[in-house]
Amino acid sequence: MSVFLLEIGAEELPARFLNPLEAELRDKFSSGLRAAGLEYAQLEVYSTPRRAVVCLRGLAEKTRAEDELVIGPPARIGLDADGKPSKAGEGFARTQQVDFSEVFTVKRDKGEYLAARKKTGGEDAGTFLARFCPEAINSLSFPKRMRWGSGSYTYARPLRWIVALLDAQVVNFSTGGVQSGRGTFGRRAQGAGFFELEDASRYFAEMPDKGKVMVSAAERRALIIARGDRLAQEAGGTVIWKDSLLDEVQGLCEYPVPLLGSFDASFLEIPAEVLLTSMETHQKSFGLRDARGQLLPYFLTVLNIEPEDESPVRKGWERVLRARLEDGKFFWKSDLAADFDDWLGKLDKVIFMDKLGSMGDKSRRLGNLLCILAGRGPFGAETLGLEEARRAGRLSKADLVSEMVGEFDTLQGIMGSIYAGCKGESPEVARALAGQYLPAGQDSPLPESLGGSLLSIADKADTLAGCFALGLIPTGASDPFALRRCALGIARILEEKKLRLDVDEIFQLALEQYDESSARAWKLPKDKILGSLGEFFSLRLKNLFMSKGADTLLVEAILAAGYSDVWAASARLAALRKFSFRPDFSESVLTFKRAANIIRKQGQEEPLTGQVQKSLLLEPAEKNLAANLESLLPNFERLWGQDDFEALLDLLYTLKPAVDRFFQEVMVMCEDKTLRLNRLNLLAGLVNRLRKLADFDALQM
Description:
This protein is of the alpha+beta class. It is built from 27 helices and 16 strands. Strands 1, 2, 3, 7, 8, 9 and 10 form a seven-stranded mixed sheet that branches. A four-stranded antiparallel sheet has the order 13-15-16-14.
């Protein structure tokens, strides 16, 4: 069994390219080798800024050899009257590269056909890889590609070298003007420069030793954390590790060297959020904190070289960071001297969106909408006063015109919260401002406070309503205003925070906050806007539930019964999923679905109220079903009021025998119209309650 090594060397790739590149290489090699029947024991994929590496261990010498039965033309066409090959028969043998004596006939449903056994596979691994590797390299996808020199070939960055070794033998191919070989390069600084590999199996020993390169991202990350923690401990603190920054930093170096720097303690008067943003965003560095959680005047950065003397390098990093912190300190003091009223006045000159008014207009709409939503409580132990709600909405966008957010735009909302606390606003208002932009995605944290949750919902609903009114509805992959993310954020907050607010009502209220001048620009009538918003939100909610592993049919059945109370829809889905594990789930669905189908069809022709006249109940089976349904009603209403959806499904399940007997013994669609309507209303009483939980008609069994 052999070892194959492929190393694709290029100019430095952006760190964000590396993880997708590894995943794509893994997928291409695993699927490509599987399709070719080339077996291997282990596939390893690595990347650094200058190289992508694929290693196959335990590689078979040849692709799997197989005999393939190839069916040719019908025997009556491939053979003449004497049983000799016709031109069609000879052509078939020639195409399959076999002598006609090896051709035989096989029987099929439509008669006899010529056939041949064709040997496939058995190709040398090196021959296959020489053909496959350039195809795999050329088909790699990147967010951006580039050309270099006078050629037309494109890659993420200019290709510089390719190593392709099968044990000690070079696998020869060429792509992008680069010929494969055994020569590689070490780290750009302090590495060995160009050197050759004798054998593929020596690569992982020689790269860190001779090349000063760690090809494994996981190992680089572990080294950064281990050395960083040690340096921080020596300084009396701990590193504030941030996973996204760790991923980026390990992707910026081939052999990480953590370095501890410091800054003047006077900068600690600036909010920690500003200091960390300066370090993390601009300097790709980590902050340190003490045992009480307070920031320390230190930062941890990561070098791609190991300097002989760290002092001048450290001073250089400290000088650059100091300039950033000086800017932050200036912005901080300037903003503290400013007044919220001045900022609110400036918002009227900041356009929110063409035809939807200014940011000042948006903040006034949010103040009104948030006040209405806050009055829709109760929301448990946490409360938000109506005046505080209106104030939070009005101040929500004020920090957009602050000096600090103008420089550090990722701090929007956060700085508004900090400034609100400093300028005498209530703690509830400050907490609301901090959470207004959360969640930022499916895995992003939610707002911590009730005010932040309601403000986030109001903000996203305002944007959705305005954009849909202008006909700016996402299509395909296009979503320039991140409306899908807005809908997902609303859904997550309502579900996870257990806020019992009606989504359809929220959108209607949001639309009503727009003034007449904005309404004149709407492309759709109000009912069409709300209908489109409902469909759009329901689809996002469906995707959210399915992303958590829920079955598509169960989700569709739940949402068809109602989506506007998101928490209740989620709870009903959980109950239906549990109910679906019953051994007789399919039979129960078919029983209830039969009733739903009848009501759906007949309800279009005759109005059904669900009210039953007992005097018209003639058959024992229909009397039995009516009695069971009547005795069930009080418990149904009680459990519905308690949101006990599992118990409700169990309760309805007890009706199954009575419903089955009803269908077996009673003619629903009898000729007597009075009896027919009474029996349909009996079923409607059942179906109306089923449909509050789920649309069983949507379940395909």
